[in-house]
Amino acid sequence: MAGRLLLLLTATGAKSGLQRTTPLRYFADDGRLVVSASNLGAPHDPAWYRNLLKYPDVTVEVGSERFAGRARVLAGEERAQTWTRMSAAYPFLLEHQARTSRQLPLVALERRDR
Asked: Is the distance from CB of 80 to CB of 68 less than 8 angstroms?
């Protein structure tokens, strides 16, 4: 994973209620961090994404920075524009999308202090 833009996302488990931390590749987009719930193109969403749907308040760690955030699923034109920029930066996302019939969710991780 060396050289990749990674963050640590800590969210509450939808079923267990326990804190779960997941390393994710992120895309820096206009002052926010965006992650894709691609699950490598699997037919189902990853567990961390399902957790965010139930409990959107998260902790994000990037490098030495740590902040309280809120996860927001992108939709409509905002998602379409972000997808264009993100998939240009990370072409492997196009391969993941081609493997599945579900639209890969994009999630903005926004600071709660804003």
From this structure: no
Q: Was domain 6-111 assigned CATH 2.30.110.10?
A: yes
Per-residue pLDDT of the chain (114 residues; tens, 9 = 90+): 445 789 999 999 999 999 999 999 999 998 899 999 999 999 999 999 999 999 999 999 999 999 999 999 999 999 999 999 999 999 999 999 999 999 999 999 999 875
DSSP string, the chain: -TTS-EEEEEEE-TTT--EEEEEEE-EEETTEEEEE--GGG-SS--HHHHHHHH--EEEEEETTEEEEEEEEE--HHHHHHHHHHHHHH-THHHHHHHT-SSPPPEEEEEETT-
